[in-house]
Please model this.
Amino acid sequence: MLLPSARRCLRVTAIFLLLAGLLLLAWQGDARAQQDSVVDVLQVEGPLDGRVSGHVLRALERAEDEGAEAVVLELDTEGGLGTDGAELADRIRESTVPLVVWVGPPGSQATGAGALLAQSAHVLGLAQASSLGAVEPLDLAGAGGTGAVDNLDERLAGYAEETGRSVGFAEDLADGWAVVAGGEDLGTLERDLDRGALPWAVDPDRLLLADNAELVDQGIVDFVATELPDVLRQVDGLTVPMSDGAGGMTQHTIDLDPVTANVRFDNLGLLDRVLHAMADPTLAYLLVIAGALAMLFEVYQPGFGVAGGAGAFVLALGAYGLWVLPTNWWALALVAVGLALLAVDLAIAGLGPLTVSGAAALAAGSYWLFDGPPPLQASVWAIALAVGFCLLYFVVIMTTVLRAQGAQAMAGAEEVVGRDAVVRSMLNPEGHVFVAGALWRARAPAEVGKVKTGTLVHITGMSEDGLTLDVELVDEPAGNRA
Model:
C-alpha cells in the first residue's frame, strides 16, 4: 500500500507529464503551421529557350494549385532563344503567387528576355557583382516571337509602375542601359570597366556601376543578396501588388520564415537539362564533330558496332543543338564536305591535296557555323582544337589503325587470292575491297587509274610489302566466272 506522500508524488509527476505533453503538441502544431510556408526555387542558367520557359510556366501553375507562398527564380541568362519572353513576362504578372527574380549567384547576368522577366517580377533582387540589362535584343538569335515587341519602353514602364520600382530606369533598360551591383567589389569593377574586361555581355558606355544601398534607394531593385538564404530573409514581410485571379490587383504580404519554410528546388528534369545544354554552341559543335568521326570510323569497319551506335546518338544530340541555335546551313555543308574530303583521302591513302582542302573547308565551315552574337558563337579555341584533332585522327590515328588491320588481315590473304571482290572505297591506286565478309587493303594496277566504288575486281595476289592485295578489273559478273 502506497503512503500518502508517495501518492501525492505520483499525482504531481502525472500532471507534470501531461502538461509537458500538451506543450509539446502545441509546439509541434506551431512548427507545422510555420512549415506550411512553401517556397519553390527554380535555378535557371543559360539561354531562355523553350525548355526553360515551359518549365517556368509549369512551376507557376503548380505553385498556384498548391498554394505556395512564393516562387524564387534564380536567374543567370544572356537572353532568350527562340521563345516568347514577352508572353512569359505577362504570365508572371498574372500569377496569383508572388514571383521573386534574383539575378544570382554573384557574377550572374540577366540581359535580353532575362531582363524583361526580371522587370516583370513582383520582387526583383541582384547578387553582388551581377548585371541587369540591357533588354534588347530580346532574342539572341534575332528571330522568333521575342524579336518584335511593340512599345517595349512602355511595357517596361508599366511593369515598374505596378511594382513600385523606378520607371526611369525601366525606360533606360529599353534604351540599352544596364546596371551592376558593385558592393564590396565596386572598386575592382570600376578598374575592369576602364580596361574593358567586364565579364558580362553589356555595352561599357551604357553601364551603371552602383552601390548596393543606392540600387535599393533609387528603386532599381528591391534588395541585394549574396546567397539564397539571404534572399528568403529579405523577401519575408514584403508587400507586393499582384493579380487577385479575377482580373484585378491586390496587395499581398509575403509571409515566410526563412528557417522553417519548406524550400522546394524545382529544376529541369534530366532530359530537359540535356536538351537545354545543347543550346551551348561550343558543346553542340563538338558533339557534331565527335559523332561524325565515330560514324566515319564505322565506314572502315565491317558491320555496324558500338562506335557507330554511340556516334549516331552523339550526332543526334549535336544536330538538335544546331536546330535550336542560329545555324548557317551552308557552313554546316562546308563542314560535311571537309570531313568527306579527309575521309576520301584516307581511303585512297593519298594524304595530300585532298587532306589540305578538307582541313581548310572544315576550318572555314566551323568558324562561320553559327550566326549570332558572341554568346551564340562556338569558342575559337574549341574550333582550333577540333580541326587539329580531325587532322590527327585521319592522318595518324586512322592510318595506323587501317595499317594494323591490314597487317592482321593479311595473315589469311592466301585464302582470298583468286576470288572476286567489290571495291568499298575508291582505288587510287590503293583503297579497300570487300571479300569474305571483311575489308581488305588493295591496290589496282597503275595503268588502270582510279577504280570507282562498287566495281568488281579479281584478286591476283599480294603486294611485295605484304600489306595490300593486288587486284585487276573484272569484265564480267562474278557469277559467270569459272
Remarks:
- Residues 70 and 155 are 24 Å apart (CA to CA).
- Residues 4-35 form the longest helix (32 residues).
- The longest strand covers residues 38-45.
- The radius of gyration is 34 Å.
